[in-house]
Amino acid sequence: MSDKTEEAGWATAKTLAEALPFIQRYDREIVVIKYGGHAMGEEAVARLFAADAVLLKLLGVHPVVVHGGGPQISAMLDRAGVKSTFIDGLRVTDEATMEVAEMVLSGAINKEIANWITIAGREADVRGVGLSGKDARLLTVTKARRTTRDPGSQMEQVVDLGFVGEPKKVDPMLIQALIHAEQDYVPVIAPIGVSEAGQTFNVNADTVAGAVAGALKAKRMLLLTDVKGVLDKNGNLIRQLTVAEAFDAIKTGVATGGMIPKLETAIAAVDAGVEAVVILDGRRPHAMLVELFTEHGAGTLIRA
Ligand SMILES: Nc1ncnc2c1ncn2[C@@H]1O[C@H](COP(=O)(O)OP(=O)(O)O)[C@@H](O)[C@H]1O
Ligand SMILES: CC(=O)N[C@@H](CCC(=O)OP(=O)(O)O)C(=O)O
C-alpha cells in the first residue's frame, strides 16, 4: 500500500470519528427526505442518493423518502402533446394530466427509487418499499383552492386547478409499522392522494413531505432540490432562517416560483413540531450526509 493510500484511510477514519456526536443525535430519529424531480438528475447520481438512504438506515436513522417528478411528468405530457400550466407552482391537473402524473409518479419513479434502495442495501438486507398516498389511507386530501385578484376590479377570483389536492389528513400507521418492523425498510412515498369520496388527486411533493414530516414528528425534513438553498437578492446562500424570516422571504419576493411552496411547507412543518427543515442541493453527491453528520451542514436551515 502506498503512503498516500494509507493517509487517505486515516483521513476517512477521522471523518467517521468526528461524525459520532451527529450520528448519536439522529439515533432512532425520523428524517423525512423530499427528493425533488430536479434533484434526480442522472441515474448515477440517483443511485448515490439511494446508497446514502441505505447508509442512514444502517446508522440508526429512520429515513422516509417523499419524491417528486415534476420535470418527468412535463416531459411525458410533452410527448403526448398535452400542455401544462402552473399556478403558484401547482400544475393545473385535468383528467388526462392526472392519469399521466399518477403513471409517472406512482408507476415509474416510485418503484425505481424503491428498487435502487433495495439494490444498494442488498448486503445488509435494507429494502425500499414504494407507496403512494393511496396505500392504507396514508394521505387523504381535499381539492386545493386558489384565488387570484383581478387587476382591474381588484375582485378575488377562484381558480380551478382541477385534480390538485391539499393534505387533509396523514395517517402515519403504515409508515410507523415499516419504521418499527424488525426488517430494515425505507418507505418511499409518491405524492398522490385520495379524497374522502375516493377520487385520486395530484399533490405537490413538497407539501406531501411537510404533511408526512408533521404527522411523524420528524426530527428533520430535508428538501433536496437543484439550488444550494434559499438565495438572497444577490444570489448568496442564506444559511439560516427563522419561521418569521421565511415568511418575509416570500412576502418581499426573495423567494419566487418553486421556492414558495418549499418555504410554506417548511413553515408548516416547523409549526407542526418538526425541529428544523433544510433546503439543500440534492444534485451534489452525499448532500444528506454533509447536512446531518457535519458541524457546518449544508443549504438553508429553517427553524422556529
Ligand atoms: N430565493 C430563491 N433561492 C433559491 N431558489 C429560488 C429562489 N426563488 C426561486 N427559486 C427557484 O426555486 C427552484 C426550486 O424549486 P423547484 O423547481 O420547484 O424544485 P424541485 O423540483 O426540486 O421541487 C430553484 O431552481 C429556483 O429557480
Ligand atoms: C400539484 C402539483 O403540482 N403536483 C406536482 C407533483 C410532482 C412534484 O411536486 O414534483 P417536484 O417536487 O419534482 O416539483 C406536479 O404535477 O408536478
From TrEMBL:
Binding-site positions, substrate: G69, G70, R91, N202
Domain Aspartate/glutamate/uridylate kinase: 30-280
Record has Nucleotide-binding as a keyword: yes
PANTHER family reported in the protein's UniProt record: N-ACETYLGLUTAMATE SYNTHASE, N-ACETYLGLUTAMATE SYNTHASE, MITOCHONDRIAL
Pfam families, per the entry: AA_kinase
Major localization listed first in the record, in broad terms: cytoplasm
Reactions the enzyme catalyzes: N-acetyl-L-glutamate + ATP = N-acetyl-L-glutamyl 5-phosphate + ADP
Organism: Caulobacter ginsengisoli
Protein name, per record: Acetylglutamate kinase
UniProt keywords, alphabetically: Amino-acid biosynthesis, Arginine biosynthesis, ATP-binding, Cytoplasm, Kinase, Nucleotide-binding, Transferase
Database matches in Gene3D superfamilies: Acetylglutamate kinase-like (3.40.1160.10)
Function: Catalyzes the ATP-dependent phosphorylation of N-acetyl-L-glutamate.
Family (UniProt): Belongs to the acetylglutamate kinase family. ArgB subfamily.
Keyword rRNA-binding: no
SUPFAM superfamilies xref list: Carbamate kinase-like (SSF53633)
Subcellular location: Cytoplasm
Site note Transition state stabilizer, residues: K34, K262
